[in-house]
Amino acid sequence: IRWHPSPRDSCKLNCDGAVSNGIASCGGVARDHNGKFIMAFSCNLGKCSVVRAELWAIFYGIKLLRERSWDGAIWVETDSAVAVKFLNQGCIRTHDSYSLVNKIVPIVGDDHEVSCSHIFREANQVADLLAKHGHSLQNRIVIFSDPPPWIHFALLADLSAVSFFRGF
Fold it and tell me: Can you give the pTM of this predicted structure?
């Protein structure tokens, strides 16, 4: 299992959510079709479910790319099959994530091609590091224009097409 870059003239947005000791955080990284770093973020969310943390990661990632005037297709990947299902097939009104799913849909808009798919966590290690970093933040989001040093090894592993066994 390994990370794969997006098709030409598009970007890959890897997102992740994490919950530890009842506190949720999220993070994500955007890279172009060559694997070149575009931006990343980490965020402390306070109390929420892991599914909502995953959805917040997707929301912030797309929103931040939009704010940076990204005009190509966006390939969103997350290791949450539930988040992917909600975004691709909808979410029932009674689910606690319904309003958040409906917050994501308008920012996708009609202008850009945005797809959302599931990947195994072994191929989502950079986003995982960013999500876990969010726990150290005090209820705020940090945006990285350059890769922080603590994700360099994981970025290099992705660019080098390092494969991992399931359960690594």
Answer: 0.94
Set out the domains of the chain in order of their start, with CATH numbers. Answer: 10-158 (3.30.420.10)
In this predicted model, what pLDDT tens digit does every residue of 14-65 receive, in sequence order? 999 999 999 999 999 999 999 999 999 999 999 999 999 999 999 999 999 9
At 122 the three-state DSSP class reads helix
Q: How long, in residues, is the chain?
A: 168
Q: Do 56 and 78 touch, CB atoms closer than 8 A?
A: no
Residue 26 sits at the vertex; the CA angle it makes with 121 and 39, to the nearest 5 degrees, is 90
Of 134, 5, 118, 4, residue with least CA distance to 57:
134
Are 58 and 27 in contact by the 8 Å Cβ rule? The answer is no
Alpha-carbon separation of residue 7 from 44, 133, 137 (angstroms):
31, 29, 33
pLDDT tens digit sequence for 129-166: 999 999 999 878 999 999 999 999 999 999 998 988 88
